Structures are given as C-alpha cells and as structure tokens.
Automatic annotation (TrEMBL):
<keyword id="KW-0456">Lyase</keyword>
<dbReference type="Pfam" id="PF06314">
    <property type="entry name" value="ADC"/>
</dbReference>
<dbReference type="GO" id="GO:0047602">
    <property type="term" value="F:acetoacetate decarboxylase activity"/>
</dbReference>
<comment type="function">
    <text>Catalyzes the conversion of acetoacetate to acetone and carbon dioxide.</text>
</comment>
<dbReference type="InterPro" id="IPR010451">
    <property type="entry name" value="Acetoacetate_decarboxylase"/>
</dbReference>
<keyword id="KW-0704">Schiff base</keyword>
<keyword id="KW-0210">Decarboxylase</keyword>
<protein>
    <recommendedName>
        <fullName>Acetoacetate decarboxylase</fullName>
        <ecNumber>4.1.1.4</ecNumber>
    </recommendedName>
</protein>
<dbReference type="InterPro" id="IPR023375">
    <property type="entry name" value="ADC_dom_sf"/>
</dbReference>
<dbReference type="InterPro" id="IPR023653">
    <property type="entry name" value="Acetoacetate_decarboxylase_bac"/>
</dbReference>
<comment type="similarity">
    <text>Belongs to the ADC family.</text>
</comment>
<feature type="active site" description="Schiff-base intermediate with acetoacetate">
    <location>
        <position position="118"/>
    </location>
</feature>
C-alpha cells in the first residue's frame, strides 16, 4: 500500500477495517434516565479539571442511563455514567466524568474522536411495569441501580431541549509512543438537530456501590434532587478544542481568600 493511499484511508484504526465509520452520528429513539443528586463538594472538586469551574453553591452530579437502539455506525447499545454540571468562561455545560457501555465501536470512536471517558461494562435501561430501571454491572458485580416512577409528570419540553443544547466538555488524552501525553485537551461538543419526543419527571432513587475500576461511588449520593426521563432523536456533533493543556497556560481565577495568600 502506497503512502498516499495510507493517508487517504487513515480515518481510524485498524486501517483496513476501522472500528467505526465516519459520521455524522445520528441517534433515533434515544432514551435517557437522568438522576441528579448532591454529593461531597470536596470530592467533586478533586475530579473536575481546570479551567472548568463548579457551581460554588451546589455540588451536583447527573447520573445517566442511556438506551440507544438505533445509531448510525454504532448500532444498538446502552451507556451509563456520571456528568458533572460545570461552567467554562461563563457558559454552563456538563463535564463527562465517566462512562460505561457495551459496544466496541462507540468505545473506540468516543475515545479517539472526542475523548469520551468510555470503558467496557454492562449497563441496562428498561421499563418494568410502573418503574423505569437503570443498572450498571462491571463484570459480575452491580455498581449502580437507578429507579424512577414511569411518566408521573410531563416535563417542560422547552427547558429540557435547552438543557440538551448546552455545551458538553471532555478531557481528551492520547499518549505518545513513549508513553508521554501526545494530546491533552479540553474538548467541547454539542448535541445537534434535536427532535424531542417527550420528557417526564417522577420520584427516583439511586444506589452506587464501591468498585476499584468503576468508581462511581467515589461521588457519593447524599440527596436526590430530581430525575427526568427523555426520548429524543439527535445528532452527536463533532468537537472542537476548547483548551490545550500542552500549549496554553492555565489562567486560574483566584478566590478573594486565595488572592490575599498569593500576594
């Protein structure tokens, strides 16, 4: 194979049979169970990278179970993980802290293209009589269980669509061949062409169990704030580099107490 052909075909690995195709990546009948809870603020600060900022008043985490039965190039799979509400240069959004799913294509594509923190596991999302149930198993062990009353109240679709349209942030890390970081970037992406089919709220519960390699319980559940069930069609937009950790100095914003100590 000649060099120009290698360059032409070099979209993803393996070269002759990539793990995923080029986009766009359209999702039909995507279904979410999102349970928002309060957690330990010190533990939350320890996992959110600068220059992202946390809300000083609320230490919140969104635990998500997502069912994706029809997605271009990725097929039929389910995902689960934690998203942390943050702000970046005055814009509110969400930082993907950890994600677990059961499909090789979106694991490889998510990590290589955007920087999604994806690992292989076995999540589920299903309706059982009057309850929406989400689970996450890592190997033989259950590490997360979320439940919500099925379609108890309709949610404000305008507010839900606005929330889905907010920017999302990822920490993309690709190592060099010598093990040093080749890419270390804060990536921003958006959900696009959102066709919201319905959204509902209801009572919810969430249980997280400790696990060395799926440490979702490291952000403990102190209080359930809200829960929402969403159905939508949407396109997963490609990203842009919002901050390059290897090129740009961090412009840290000092709190008043810290500023006095620094002078």
């Amino acid at each position: 194979m000649r060099e120009n052909e290698v360059r032409k075909r070099a979209f993803a690995m393996p070269l002759t049979s990539p793990a995923y195709p080029p986009g766009p990546y359209r999702f039909v009948d995507r279904e979410y169970l999102i349970i928002t809870y309060r957690t330990d603020p010190a533990k939350l600060r320890a996992v959110v990278p600068e220059p992202l900022e946390l809300d000083a008043r609320e230490a919140l985490v969104k635990y998500e179970f997502i069912r994706m039965p029809d997605s271009n190039g990725f097929g039929d799979y389910t995902e689960s993980g934690q998203v942390i509400p943050v702000s970046f240069r005055g814009r509110r959004g969400g930082y993907s802290h950890c994600m677990f799913l059961n499909d090789e294509g979106p694991i490889a594509g998510g990590r290589e293209l955007w920087g999604f923190p994806k690992k292989l596991a076995q999540p589920t999302l299903r309706t059982e009589i009057d309850t929406l149930i989400g689970t996450l198993d890592y190997g033989p062990l259950r590490v997360a269980t979320g439940t919500m009353g099925y379609k108890h109240h309709e949610a404000d679709l305008g507010q839900v669509k606005a929330a889905l349209s907010e920017p999302n942030f990822l920490l993309k890390i690709i190592p060099h061949v010598d093990g040093s970081p080749r890419i270390c970037e804060l990536v921003e992406y958006h959900l696009e062409q959102i066709a919201l089919k319905g959204a509902w709220t209801g009572p919810a519960a969430l249980s997280l169990m400790p696990h060395a390699l799926a440490p979702v319980a490291d952000l403990p559940v102190l209080e359930i704030v809200s829960a929402i069930h969403i159905r939508a069609d949407l396109t997963l937009g490609l990203g842009r580099v919002a901050h390059d950790y290897l090129q740009e100095p961090i412009r840290r914003v000092f709190r008043p107490s810290e500023r006095s100590l620094a002078t």
